[in-house]
Amino acid sequence: MWKTSALLLLTFAAPAEAARCDPVMHDGNRFTVCEIDLAQNAARLFWRDAEGELYGEFSRLPDDVLIATNGGMYHPDRRPVGHYLEDGTEVLCPSPNAVPGNFGLLPNGVLCLNDASALVIETRAYIAATPNCTYATQSGPMLVIDGALHPRFLADSESRKRRGGVGVSDDGQTLYLAVTGNAVNFHDFASLFLNLLGTPNA
């Protein structure tokens, strides 16, 4: 079973008001949402340290990290599932194909990070456009695609789990990280990004 993996790190580079996390209620569900101003905070992905060891635990992260969350998915040996780009170096290429599990519930997407902005983009569009990314990680399924919920999400789905996700504002300047406080289905989780946070892609 694939699990959440590579660490998405936001390094402290501004007053705390430029990156904050708050509890949120939406449609009867509990969430924690972190809002990060990318003009004042740097978003980075970390998988292994300089000695090649897995970070694995939040306690091993650098002292200047303001917010950290799991990001992407990984195989049992902790290799990222799908595309992974770190500091401009492609570790694994994008995977556009349907496979078992949530990752393969197409369309899935890629989080692309550069110096002062971010982008969440559908995987095949990412492959075609080859955007300029310094860091990138692929995961799935997409929650919101060009201002609409993923077409396979059902409001009455009984598949309820604790979930985490990421969305980006329309101008690419604000990154939203969200984790659920209770088990939710994909439809309800995606509606947080679309209807409350207003992210066109998540």
User: How is the largest sheet built, in terms of strand order?
Assistant: 9-8-12-10-11
Uncertain residue segments: 1-6
What's the SSE pattern? EEEEEEEEEEEHEEEEEH
Shape field: globular
- Beta-strand share of residues: 35-45%
Whole-number mean pLDDT:
88
Give a quick rundown of the structure.
This protein is mostly beta strands and 202 residues long. The chain is 9% helix and 37% strand.
Topology record:
Blueprint: E1 3-4, E2 7-11, E3 19-26, E4 29-37, E5 42-46, E6 65-70, E7 73-74, E8 84-86, E9 89-92, E10 109-113, E11 118-122, H1 123-129, E12 135-139, E13 144-145, E14 148-149, E15 164-168, E16 174-180, H2 186-197
Antiparallel strand pairs: 1-7, 2-5, 2-6, 3-4, 4-16, 8-9, 8-12, 10-11, 10-12, 13-14, 15-16
What can you tell me about this protein's structure?
The chain has 202 residues and is mainly β. 9% of the residues lie in helices and 37% in strands. The strands form 5 sheets. It has a 5-stranded antiparallel sheet with strand order 9-8-12-10-11. It has a 4-stranded antiparallel sheet with strand order 3-4-16-15. A hairpin with a 2-residue loop joins β8 and β9. The longest helix has 12 residues, at 186-197. The model is unreliable at 1-6 (pLDDT under 50).
